[in-house]
Design goal:
- The chain is an alpha+beta fold.
- The chain folds into 2 domains: 4-62; 66-118 and 146-183 and 194-259, Pseudouridine synthase (2-Layer Sandwich).
- Helix content is 26%, strand content 33%.
- The chain has helices spanning 15-25, 99-109, 130-136, 164-175, 194-208, 228-238; strands spanning 4-9, 34-36, 45-52, 66-75, 78-79, 88-89, 111-116, 124-125, 128-129, 146-163, 212-222, 243-255, 258-259.
- Strands 1, 2, 3, 4, 7, 10, 11, 12 and 13 form a 9-stranded mixed sheet that branches.
- A hairpin with an 8-residue loop joins strand 5 (78-79) and strand 6 (88-89).
- Helix 4 packs antiparallel against helix 5.
- 30% of the residues are buried.
Length: 260
């Protein structure tokens, strides 16, 4: 029996659903204890580390592994979650990106920085996850904790443009994959607020009308606990606009010098 495996999680799957699907396809492991080491947002895709058997007891050993991601940053559009699965916010800007400004922006993200946890995250304060405070509208009543984030390298792969019609189609396809949740802790934002979010996207994109949006494709090598949604927002802010993560793909897990 293997001690650990790497599986691919699809957009719209929770880590638990991805693990359950893998067990169905590998019946020899059906009754073997299994756990995932490190979460991945339901609307992100990519590699998920699974521990098997007695290796589950060593979960803490695997929680601080480095990661590599490929992300798409959509400029001139933001959201309260930092990705498409959030209430969109349109700043009415049309950003033209120059190579010099972009190089400086990406260079400034490298290194170790003290960052606040995103309001829509599972980090707990007084035993309650931050996303519940955000959904209740009480996030301003608490002090959001901080942590160190480390980015080893961040590189531009390409700059592209998409039309508002293409963006609308992509958003609809994306939101159609949102998983349903029966967890009591998720009832305040039932099913990830997908109905409210879909309606808000439709209204905003109708208001936007025909235009093009810039999309930055980036490769990010980073330490554990670095939020790609927050990174997308910071890049947009540094460029004088808003930004969100249009897609997130975790491509590697391990140590910077030794990947899985």
């Amino acid at each position: 029996m293997k001690k650990r495996i790497i599986i691919e999680k699809n957009v719209g799957e929770t880590p638990l659903a991805a693990l359950t699907a893998w067990k169905r396809g590998n019946p020899a492991y059906a009754h073997i204890p299994a756990s995932y080491a490190g979460r991945l947002d339901p609307m992100a895709r990519g590699k998920l580390l699974i521990l098997l058997g007695d290796e589950c007891k060593k979960q803490k050993h695997y929680t601080n592994l480095d990661k590599e991601y490929e992300i798409e940053v959509l400029l001139d559009m933001g959201s309260d979650t930092g990705d498409v699965l959030g209430l969109p916010e349109y700043p009415r800007t049309e950003t033209s990106v120059t190579q010099n400004i972009l190089r400086t922006t990406l260079r400034n993200e490298r290194g170790v920085h003290r960052r606040s946890y995103p309001p829509f995250s599972s980090k707990t304060v007084n035993g309650k996850p931050l996303f519940l405070y955000a959904l209740e509208g009480t996030i301003g009543d608490i002090t959001i904790p901080e942590h160190d984030e480390q980015i080893y390298n961040i590189s531009l792969q390409r700059i592209a443009t998409i039309s508002s019609d293409t963006l609308a189609a992509s958003v609809r396809e994306f939101l159609a994959k949102v998983p349903k949740s029966d967890e009591p802790s998720k009832q305040l934002g039932a099913d990830f607020r997908v109905k409210e979010i879909s309606e808000c996207w439709e209204a905003i994109l109708k208001d936007v009308g025909p235009r093009s949006f810039t999309v930055l494709s980036l490769r990010v090598t980073c330490g554990s606990g670095t939020y790609m949604r927050s990174l997308a927002g910071r890049i947009g802010e540094a460029l004088g606009t808003r930004g969100l993560a249009l897609s997130i793909n975790r491509t590697k897990i391990g140590k910077y010098w030794k990947w899985w």
